[in-house]
Structure formats: C-alpha cells, structure tokens
Amino acid sequence: MTTTLLRTAADLHARARTGRRAVVMTMGALHEGHATLIRAARDLAGAEGEVVVTVFVNPLQFGEGEDLDRYPRTLDADLEIAGRAGADVVFAPSADEVYPGGEPQVRVSAGPMGERLEGAARPGHFDGVLTVVAKLLHLTRPDVALYGQKDAQQLALIRRMVRDLNFGVDIVGVPTVREPDGLALSSRNRYLSAAERGTALALSGALFAGRDRHAAQEALRARAREVPATHARVEALNALGESRAAADAHAVATAGGPEAVRVAARQVLDGAARFTPPLTLDYLALVDPSDFTEIGDDFTGEAVLAVAARVGTTRLIDNVPLTFGTLGAAS
C-alpha cells in the first residue's frame, strides 16, 4: 500500500479521519517485531481506520555514554517495511518539531516504578520515555497505541501514565517476536558479531529455563491436587510413577516456587558468563508487572521474568510472562 511520509504534526492533523487511528511508536531501524506491531495495528484500526507509525530517535531516553549517535537511522527502509505491514502514514518529526525550543523544562516523572530494574540501570531513562510518549500521543491523537511486550517495564509505565493522567487512548501490548533460535528481535541485534550473538542466546535460554521449571512446578501442583489427602496418597503417587523420595508432590512443588524459577534461569546466565565473549549480567528479576517489585514465594497471579545483560558493547533485554498459583500454569 502507499504510505505517506509526514514531518509535522500540522500535516498529520490536516488528514481526514474516518475511523480509528492506531499508532505504533518506534525509533526506526524497523524489523519484523515492528512489522508485527503494525499488522496488529492494522487489524485494530480496520479497513476504514488509519495506522500511523512514528519514527523518532528520542534523545531524552539516552543516558551519558549510551548509543544515541550510533543508533541506526534507516528511514527509507523503514518506509518500505511500514508500508508492507499496512501503515498509512509514517510520521518522522525532527527534534525541533517534538521539542520546540530545545529539551523540555517540564517532563513526565516515571515515579518509583521507573527507578527499578531498567530505571536503576539507566537513571532518568523512563522519564525520557514517558515524556516523549506523552508528546507523541498528543501530536498523533490516536484512539489506540500499540507497544511490544519485550519492553515490559516500559509498557507497564505507559499504561500507568495513561491511567493516572487520564489520557483518552487504549494501550495494547503485543507479544515479543523472536528469531527461530529464540533471540528476541531488537534493533540493537545488528551490533552483535557472530560470536556475540551466540552468547546473547543465553538471555532467552535463561528465560526459557525458568519458564520450563515453572511449568514443571505447576504440573506437580496440579497432580497433587488430584491425589486424595488420605492414607492412599503415597500409593496413588507411586502409581503415577513418582519416586518414593518425592512421594508428596505438593511438598516438592511448594519447595520450588518463584525462587526455583530464578535459580534455573541464573544457572544459564552463570554459564554464559564463562563464554567467549562473556555475558555480563545487569539483572535477573521475577516481578509483579503492576509495580515491578520482586515477588515472594506465596505470590499468585501474573508475573514477569526479566533479564538484562551486555554482550560486548551491546546491551540487551528480554522477558517472559508467567502465571503463579490459582490462575494456572505458565503463559
């Protein structure tokens, strides 16, 4: 389809609107993960609606020594990818358009949640993210905005900002897109050498190990619930093929829990620290997505297992969703 490139909010506002406007915010260097977001936006907007993709490398979210200057800028290729995925408009404003008069004196504060994990590793990062998201929501005036779940903390903070500050927009999260080998798609993957990419697979490997450990625990809990709490319990468990040493499946499952998930994931990361080149861990966390605090052993509900690490000079993040206790097994 024909995709229109616009540089100013005035030009965007001048377009006739006949349906829902869905917005996908990016910093460019589009890949299949972005294309998945755009296709989801196309579905939500419908044939009568409009999909707008923003391309803006936001200086406010880069800290000192980070890769603002070398962040890839590939607008021609971005236009082609966006068009193929179903975008009607690519809105690529200049810094002066987004921040007239220079960096804004008034900014959005991410609050306590913005100081944890990514916020602790990159002070001020989420203030910059929320400030530009607020600006772009005002400039593009969407009905719905879509963000990738790979940036889980960012998505949670955007949802919180929209709720707390009464933005009139629906926020939709889209699942992480991965390479066939499990590596989460990221514009920064292009910085990795072949050897570094091999090491980087430990991020998804660790998450999958934690997820598998969690699934095994939930399966044990389910089997324990099915076994009568009577004298016949051991016999029933033995009939299921359980070893005598682990006859009480409920006790085995309870002894695992969130900490066992963390241990399983950390074992993979510890091994990758000895690779050539090595993986340098920033954090591994199992958190409540409502506030990104670590969950306890008695936690029930949705959680996020998140990791951030450096391979060479490239910093990567990834996560998987899990569900503990009464809500079911792994997502």
Order of helices and strands: EHEHEHEHHHEHEHHHEEEE
Count of individual helical segments: 10
Instruction: Give the tally of β-strands.
Output: 10
Helical/strand content category: alpha/beta
Helix content estimate: 25-40%
Summarize the structure.
The chain is 40% helix and 19% strand. It has 331 residues and is of the alpha/beta class.
Model description:
It is a single chain. The protein has about 325 residues and is an alpha/beta fold. It contains ten helices and ten strands. It has a six-stranded parallel beta sheet with strand order 1-4-3-2-5-6, sandwiched between helices. Strands 8-7-9-10 form a four-stranded antiparallel beta sheet, with helices on one face. Helix 2 crosses helix 3, helix 6 crosses helix 7 and helix 8 packs antiparallel against helix 10. The longest helix has about 35 residues. The relative contact order is 0.12. The C terminus is likely disordered.
